[in-house]
Design brief:
Helix content: 25-40%
CATH class of the largest domain: Alpha Beta
Bound molecules: alpha-L-arabinofuranose
Strand content: 15-25%
CATH superfamily of the largest domain: Glycosidases
């Protein structure tokens, strides 16, 4: 098969906000305990953080990490996780039916983020609590000194404010599973009042209002419009969450998941702009896709979990090669929409539906989905160019005309690099992709990285952690005004040029 990608340096989608490569760590399963934090592990540092995990997080170059939930945040008392560890209460945690020891809280997580070279996106509890708790937490984190909560932080050994810039106003408040779930009216009002006082206390912060829990919620659309009607003047972003999966083992359809993501983004953008028009506002609300990933492999195992354990193996999806291809197409889709998607969080980062896995007391390793994320996060910085693609297409039961090639190009003027990310969705044929380089005539190939595997279900496990890894022997030839890249059947490709 043949396909063509035309790019023009004057036609950009927009500047990529690096926070599009964010991630998420929730108090859930082994994300915190025996994930990032395991004091008895041989690689633990002075605070009990696993250095082998930090090393993998660094490879992903994650600029921001959402914390502490997720569903967890809607029942969380942040005060439980500060001060002397021996005095912290153990709680029955109702979102995931486990025991929360509170050994790690806001102070420790801030410190972990520093050590992992990332920032925190902090969520507040608008489930069981409200504006007062959010105000106090903000004062604890960001107020310099001389008040009750800022001096409490200092007494705990943190003289400097944490200066957290991005705050989420609750989590998935439309979901019946959410502790303290609300109607759009109820949530819109409380989010508005919370946002108002938070910005009074620290006008430099940015706020994210909760959108629908997924594109498939019955209230989707109406929820966003109502919430934004209440909060428009006080918030900066609306959240999108969506998880994808292949429960029916229909790989062709599964590989088209990014079409759903694209529709979701376009719909939410339209709703934001509808409210903007109704309000005759100059302000634009942007999108925070702060939970996205594949999640389905662990569903059955999780149904059998015994309740009230500490740090059980929960939501531990073992990702295969086709999952990595889907994650690649989802990343390309975020880049293609970077004019409105300013933040996104791969949910999650360690052990819980995550690119990084750990063994208690043992190894840490990269799952298959680690690689497309690592490549885009490292090479997908700069400006995304609007891709004009001609490619053959296929139909699934639900979607028509799915292109075999999903692709986008990113130009980094500082580094003088042009990078093309491309997935070949065909399960049978390779594709000769012609990349029009008329605007980059002297482009030289740096490398063509490929992630491929004959077995779509191949995984990386503790004993075979290098089963699915990228190589850089991809076949790309560069001519005067074009390059030709061979995209092998079902493969993820990163074609890097010096310009
Ligand atoms: O990431 C796992 C869960 O998925 C989060 O806690 C919740 O927000 C979503 O439903």
């Amino acid at each position: 098969m043949k396909a063509r990608l035309i790019i023009n340096k004057d036609f950009s989608v927009g500047e990529i906000d690096k926070r599009i490569y964010g991630s998420f760590i929730e108090h859930l399963g082994r994300a915190i305990y025996n994930g990032i934090y395991e004091p008895s592990h041989p690689s633990a540092d002075d605070m009990g953080f696993r250095k082998d995990v930090i090393e993998l997080v660094n490879q992903l170059n994650v600029p921001i990490v959402r914390y502490p939930g997720g569903n967890f945040v809607s029942g969380y008392n942040w005060e439980d996780g500060i001060g002397p560890k021996e005095k912290r209460p153990r709680r029955a945690e109702l979102a995931w039916h486990v025991i929360e020891t509170n050994e790690v809280g806001i102070d420790e997580f801030q410190e972990w983020a520093k050590r992992a070279n990332t920032e925190v996106m902090q969520a507040v509890n608008l489930g069981t609590r409200g504006p007062d708790e959010a105000r106090n937490l903000l004062e604890y984190c960001n107020f310099p000194k001389g008040t009750y909560y800022s001096d409490m932080r200092r007494a705990h050994g943190f003289e400097e404010p944490f200066d957290i810039k991005v705050w989420c106003l609750g989590n998935e408040m439309d979901g019946s599973w959410q502790i303290g779930a609300k109607t759009a009216e109820e949530y819109g009002r409380i989010a508005c009042e919370t946002a108002k006082i938070m910005k009074e206390l620290d006008p430099s912060i940015e706020l994210v209002a909760c959108g629908s829990s997924s594109l498939f919620m019955p209230t989707f659309g109406k929820w966003e419009a109502t919430v934004l009607e209440h909060t428009y003047d006080y918030v900066d972003y609306i959240s999108l969450h969506n998880y994808y999966g292949n429960p029916n083992n229909d790989t062709k359809a599964y590989l088209a998941s990014s079409i759903d993501m694209d529709n979701f983004i376009k719909s939410v953008t339209a709703i934001c702009d509808y409210v903007k028009a109704v309000k005759k506002s100059d302000k634009t609300i942007n999108l925070s896709f702060d939970e996205w990933n594949i999640w389905f492999h662990s569903n059955e195992a999780d149904k059998k979990l015994e309740r009230w354990q500490i740090a059980p193996h929960q939501l531990e999806d073992v990702y295969n090669f086709e999952d990595a291809l889907v994650v690649g197409t989802l990343l390309i889709t975020l880049l293609k929409n970077c004019d409105r998607v300013k933040m996104a969080c791969l949910a999650q980062l360690v052990n819980v539906i995550a690119p990084i896995m750990t063994e208690n007391g043992g190894k840490a390793w990269a799952q298959t989905i680690f690689y497309p994320f690592m490549h885009t996060s490292n090479y997908g910085r700069g400006v995304a160019l609007a891709p004009v693609v001609s490619s053959d297409t296929y139909d699934t039961d639900r979607l028509k005309k799915v292109p075999y090639v999903e692709t986008v190009a990113v130009v980094n003027d500082e580094k003088k690099e042009l990078t093309v990310f491309a997935v070949n969705r065909s399960l049978e044929e390779s594709i000769d992709l012609e990349i029009d380089l008329r605007d980059y005539e002297n482009a030289e190939l740096i490398e063509h990285i490929v992630l491929e595997h004959e077995d779509l279900k191949a995984t990386n496990t503790v004993d075979n952690s290098d089963n699915v890894v990228p190589h850089n022997n991809g076949a790309t030839s560069v001519g005067e005004r074009a390059a030709n890249a061979i995209l092998n059947k079902h493969s993820w490709n990163v074609i890097r040029f010096k310009i």
